[in-house]
């Protein structure tokens, strides 16, 4: 998907919501367990209930891989269901030497036609650049994550005075641009969003950590919004597990709609719409 | 596999060789292409030709994932063929928030019964520790890789004076120990092995970069050997693609044997055997 189409989707839906499709066999409603593929049945109902409210879907690969071959089949069928009007993110956090990253690119941009892939930056340029060679495909580079371990290395200060995540942002601007590179920036650190925006003013940010992880949507918009919106805010558990009863899809829609309405209000307040 | 058993294997085979099983459909011998599963046929012949010469096999997941469901089937059958007397490494470079890393652990320690998994450190403690809860299973943490991009972040100096990779090593010693944690340390940087050994004297190191990437086995042993050997040196392309003709398995054996003999000579010279 192009940046232009993504922005159009955001404008049209008045939403920059991304929904994490992380189906957990121990958490999905019991009545789905006798289906041939319970995780696919779950995903399909979640998608049908939310597709007009969100602009992106983000399956985290861990939830599919753990079922082996069957899980990859579920992923393929989920992708088929999503279609072409949502930005799709393979939350796979891959990254390897150049020679090998090329194969991961084939997996997630060709075998499964995702628009984008999350990539870990630790191995540097040649682990990232092979993904940037695909037209209208995106790398979403981990910069500042929302988990506790983010403070182990990402926020460590370098001799130059900048934090490791700032070095990652700066260095990566030499590898790609706002048309093929986005960044994961945790919403639990909204004060750091200002620092991020100072380095990558034009890029889209994928912001996890709203809801279950405690981030504030108002702060994210305050410090993260740019002329293209520039934000995809993800919620997974707060939406897909809003209920574990027969009303799960309906409750997922209610949760997603609550966030979408708040997004519309904030975009409008910022005169973005 | 326990550390004790791994050391016994090394002593018995006079080898600390790990062979990377990275089958590439464009590089394997043509005569295999009419087999039902060419990559599996290739792996089986490579394993049969080398299993007495190496102590570990390391499939890099990128080479399987890029074939979708079929690739995961090939991986499973390859694992079945390897059996229990080789240390198996899922070179997957995974790492996610704790909740999610648990699912990756399920994939690589239960769904596919690998002994170990390579993990990227960028997300910190909660991305690594879920893998350390499995008995006799191992995390192999990326510390200092052998690719060009390693200099982008890994060797950057922190305010404290230590490099990022040294911080990763030091911090991780609080998460695990020499019985469940190894490190990837690139052989193209043998001078840095001394620094690594100063921080993790007892740990096993997985050393890529011998052969195609230019590292020296003598230097690796000089600076990396410890009382348990403490080394697994990987070669992939130099062995598995030694020939692309009908003699590929024979030539792979010759290449592996050359390395094994050099290893035996070095271990003997160091009075380790």
Instruction: Please tell me what the overall shape of chain A is.
Output: globular
Q: Major beta sheet of chain A, specifics?
A: 8 strands, parallel, barrel
Question: What number of domains of chain A?
Answer: 1
Q: Please report which band the strand proportion of chain A falls in: under 5%, 5-15%, 15-25%, 25-35%, 35-45% or over 45%.
A: 15-25%
Number of strands of chain A: 8
What's the CATH C level of chain A?
Alpha Beta
Determine the CATH topology of chain A. TIM Barrel
- Provide the gyration radius of chain A in Å: 18 Å
Portion in helices of chain A:
40-55%
Q: State the assembly state of the protein chains.
A: homodimer
End-to-end C-alpha gap of chain A:
21 Å
SS-based class of chain A: alpha/beta
* Average pLDDT reading of chain A: 95
| CATH homology-level superfamily of chain A | Aldolase class I
Order of helices and strands of chain A: HEHEHHEHEHEHHEHEHEHH
Strand arrangement in the largest pleated sheet of chain A: 1-2-3-4-5-6-7-8
């Amino acid at each position: 998907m192009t940046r232009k189409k993504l922005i159009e989707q955001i404008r049209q839906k008045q939403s920059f919501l991304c929904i994490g499709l992380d189906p957990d066999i121990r958490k999905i409603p019991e009545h789905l367990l006798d289906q041939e593929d319970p995780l696919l049945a779950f995903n399909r109902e979640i998608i049908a209930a939310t597709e007009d409210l969100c602009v992106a879907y983000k399956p985290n690969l861990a939830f599919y891989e753990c079922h082996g071959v069957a899980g990859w089949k579920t992923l393929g069928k989920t992708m088929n269901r999503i279609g072409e009007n949502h930005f799709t993110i393979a939350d796979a956090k891959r990254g390897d030497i150049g020679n090998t990253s090329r194969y991961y690119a084939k997996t997630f941009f060709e075998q499964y036609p995702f628009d984008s892939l999350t990539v870990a930056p630790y191995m540097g340029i040649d682990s990232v650049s092979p993904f940037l060679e695909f037209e209208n495909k995106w790398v979403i580079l981990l910069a500042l994550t929302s988990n506790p371990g983010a403070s182990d290395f990402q926020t460590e200060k370098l001799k130059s005075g900048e934090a490791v995540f700032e070095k990652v942002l700066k260095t990566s601007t030499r590898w790609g641009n706002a048309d093929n590179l986005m960044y994961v920036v945790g919403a639990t650190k909204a004060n750091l969003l200002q620092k991020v925006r100072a380095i990558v003013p034009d890029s889209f940010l994928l912001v996890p950590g709203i809801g279950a992880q405690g981030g504030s949507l108002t702060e994210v918009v305050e410090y993260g919004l740019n002329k293209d919106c520039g934000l995809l805010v993800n919620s997974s558990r707060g939406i897909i597990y809003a209920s574990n009863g027969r009303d799960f899809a309906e409750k997922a829609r209610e949760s997603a709609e609550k966030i979408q309405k708040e997004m519309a209000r904030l975009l409008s307040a910022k005169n973005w719409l």
